[in-house]
Structure formats: C-alpha cells, structure tokens
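Appendix B, example 12.
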Amino acid sequence: MNKLDYFERTLDDKNRLTIPADLRHEFSGGEVTITRGFGNYLHVYTKQVWEEKMEPALKGDILDERIADLNVKFRSGKSTTLMDEKQGRITLEKHLLEYANINKDVVAVRAGDYWRLSAKS
C-alpha cells in the first residue's frame, strides 16, 4: 500500500483542516503541535514526533546562538490542538494562518516525520 504524502483541503469557517481518513491514525489519540516553518509555511507534528525528535533537537548549549534561533523560530506562536476524532479535523490558529498567508485552500506535504502546510497557489 502506498503511503499518502500529499493532500489538498479547504479550511472550514472555523479554520479547521480535515485530515484524510487514510492519515487519521497518525494523528489520533494525542496532541498535534503546529509551528511556523522555515519559510512562509507551517509545520504540523504529532505529539510523539514533537516530544521525541523536536524537543531533543531544540536542546543544546545555552550560549549556542543557532539553537537559540531555532527555539525562537519554532516556539514563537506554537500551538497545540487535538484532532477531532469524529470528523478528523485540527484547528489552525489565525496568527499561524496569517504567517503562512493561508486563506482557505491548503496544500499539505509530508516532510519526513512532520507535515508542511502552505497556501495553495
């Protein structure tokens, strides 16, 4: 079976993104962390990936400016939400949508262990 690595969706009026049924098992039962990306897009992490991969990556020497900059980048405006198990939706906060210039139409692409969300062009 092929793994789904890309999908497009339109946000509803409450800024909720519907996760495709084939992917819901990845997000079920826990928090989803949404952060700014390196560019004008968002990153979406499952709780497990955030805790097991991102948190350790953001730790380091207190005087390491690169680590400090990464912490500021990924923690500024960071939000957590739970996926609505019944409808398979996650809510995207307005300030993050504005950062990524997302109005309604979203493109989601798997980037290794996380998802990248951007505005559909």
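DSSP finds four helices and eight strands in the chain. Residues 47-58 form the longest helix (12 residues).
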